[in-house]
Structures are given as C-alpha cells and as structure tokens.
Amino acid sequence: MPEQKYSVNAFYASLINWYDMNGRKLPWRTRPGARPNPYKIWVSEIMLQQTTVATVKSRFKIFLKRWPTINSLAKAELDEVLNSWQGLGYYARARNMHKCARIIAYDLNGTFPRDKQELIKLPGVGIYTAAAIAAIAFDCPVIPIDSNVARILTRVHAIRGTESVTNKKIDKFATSLTQKKRPGDFAQALMDLGALICKPRNPDCPRCPINTKCNACGNEDLLQYSHKNKGKPKPKRWGLAFWLHRPDGKVLFYRRPESGLLGGMIDLPGSNWHPEKNIVKDLQKAPLTADWNLLPGEVKHVFSHFQLILQVAITKTQSNNNNINGIWHSPLALDELALSTLTKKVVSHVRRFE
C-alpha cells in the first residue's frame, strides 16, 4: 500500500475549510460551527438509512412540521407514523423510531444520550447511526463511516482488495483522523466530499480540496478504489395478491405482523413469495374458496435483496355479512390506511381493470 501523503492536521484543515464554503445546505443542519438540534439529527439519520438525501429533504420538513419535538412524536399513534412514512420504504425504521421516541420521552425525560455506546442501545440505532448522532449532534470525536467516507479513505490510501478486506484498514485510518475540534462538521465534510466530489463514478479530482493528499488522484485505475464490490443481479420471487371486495365496495385488508418485511403495515391478503412461480399453490392461500379471476399483467417491486413479481386474483363476496377476519375498507379512502408502496402498486394495477 502506498505511503501516506498527508499530515492529519493538513488533511483536516483543507477539508474543513472547503466544507465551510461548499457544504450542502440541508434542513436538519445548522451553520458550520453551531450545535444542531439532536432531535432533528436523529430524525434525519433514521430517514437517511437506505433513502437518498434528495428524497429525505422534502419528507423531513413535512415530518418535522407534524411532530416538531420528541415528545410530540412519542404521543403519536403508530399508525400515524407509519402512514406518514409511506414512500420512504423500510418501515421497520418508522416502527423503531416511534418506539425510540417513547423511550427518550418517557424513560429518559426527553433527553438524548450523548455517547455512542448509549445511543446504540436505542431501537433502530446501529453503529453508523450512533456515531453520526454522537458526532453531529454532540461533537463527540468519532467519524461515522458510510459509503461516502469509506470510498474517500479507500482512494486516499489506495487500499486494494474486497470490501471485507479493506474495512479494518478504513476503520484504522478513520480513527487516525478523529478530531476534537468541530468533529461534527468534519464528519459532515467527509460525507459531503463523497457526495459532491469523490463520487463512485467520474470523481471530480481537480476540484477536490485534498487531491494533493490522495494516492488515487491521477491514477488511471482510480475507479478500482471504490470500496464496493460489483453488485449481483437480485433474485426474483413470485406470489399472488388477493383483491376481495363486497357488494358495498369495501375491500379486504389486514395488518402485517410487527416483525418482518413491511411489518405493521396494512396490506392485501396474499400468498407466500416463492423463488418459482406457482399459481395453483398460491391460490390455496386465498382468504375464501371462490372463483378467483387472474388479472392480466404483473406488479413488480424491488426490495433491497430481491425483486418481487405479483399477479392479482380478484373476486366478490355474495353479501356484506361474512366471517372473514380483516379490515374491510373503501378503496376510495385508502389515504386513511398505512399502505406500503407495494400495496399501492397492486391497488393501481386493479384500478386499471375496473
């Protein structure tokens, strides 16, 4: 591995000066050098898990307008929070956020833990999120390592190898860069540098404030220092969703279990999801025995680890009175329900054939 081309102090000064002039203006941030609101930082970091900054910026403002404090969020009903989370995906985050808000409001007297090790004990707060909150909200001398930071350090030090091999070296270099002066701003400076300059593809090396300190700068094989392995095609799974409606127009929904994928969300009845298509087997999971009609076409949805392909089966009950357990709700008032993006896709598919 090439030798280190910088002193820690010079690296810090170059990056923090660049950040003061070029840092992103985000709704949860304060001006450089000022202490931000821990609640806002926590909300933003939970939202940013698996969601882009562009999406979070607008949703963050709406969320904060509805629940401006940790106490107001703690008093909210879970369904309200899940409903507001629609479109952000990974709904376990919303459930954990609600649970976390109640712990902080009721058990910790509304005060966030300041230490990384205490923060990580909260629901939905992992190693990276705890480090980010500790650094940004409380100026703890720690560097949260996300994909942007990992990519920068991988390139600066020209670290070769797979992601698993390089992680220990990245941690080592991040620890060596830890600063007691403005650690929150320094952490955000690294994040911004990765988002704006040191991008996964086509990095803008001439405009980089630390280009003279980077071993990968000017290297023809620059993109090999990207930290990430090439992604593999996502496996496919197939299943069936059931649209059962009554003479009064109401449709059968149910609440998913709290744990697992889309936990706690309102959903349509459906089959299990399989690695192979099997309509005959899937129809055995129907909420009642009837003549089910398969709608033409498919509904496709991509999760983090697989692609789901659903067909929709539809039928109608003979009366409004039946013994089928679930939530009967008008399809004209679905905004009242906490529906996932997947379920909304199925609803839209059904409406094409009404």
Report on the structure:
The chain has 354 residues and is α+β, with helices and mostly antiparallel strands. The chain folds into two domains: 8-224, Endonuclease III, domain 1 (Orthogonal Bundle); 236-351, Alpha-Beta Complex (Nucleoside Triphosphate Pyrophosphohydrolase). It has helices at residues 8-22, 38-48, 53-66, 70-75, 78-84, 92-107, 116-119, 127-138, 147-156, 163-177, 183-196, 279-283, 341-351; strands at residues 236-245, 251-255, 266-267, 293-294, 299-302, 307-316, 327-329. Helix 1 crosses helix 11 and helix 9 (147-156) crosses helix 11.
What is the annotated CATH architecture of the largest domain? Answer: Orthogonal Bundle
Q: What do the pLDDT scores average to? A: 90
**How many extended strands?**
7
* Poorly predicted parts: none
Major sheet: 4 strands, mixed
Radius of gyration, in angstroms, nearest whole number: 24 Å
| Helical coverage, percent range | 25-40%
Keywords:
alpha+beta; 354 residues; three-stranded antiparallel sheet; elongated; Endonuclease III, domain 1; Nucleoside Triphosphate Pyrophosphohydrolase; four-stranded mixed sheet; 2 domains
How are the elements arranged and paired?
Layout (H helix, E strand, L loop, with lengths): L7 H15 L15 H11 L4 H14 L3 H6 L2 H7 L7 H16 L8 H4 L7 H12 L8 H10 L6 H15 L5 H14 L39 E10 L5 E5 L10 E2 L11 H5 L9 E2 L4 E4 L4 E10 L10 E3 L11 H11 L3
Parallel strand pairs: 1-6
Antiparallel strand pairs: 2-3, 2-7, 4-6, 5-6
Helix pairs in contact: 1-11, 2-3, 2-8, 8-11, 9-11
Put the structure in a nutshell:
This protein has 354 residues and is an alpha+beta fold. It has helices at residues 8-22, 38-48, 53-66, 70-75, 78-84, 92-107, 116-119, 127-138, 147-156, 163-177, 183-196, 279-283, 341-351; strands spanning 236-245, 251-255, 266-267, 293-294, 299-302, 307-316, 327-329.
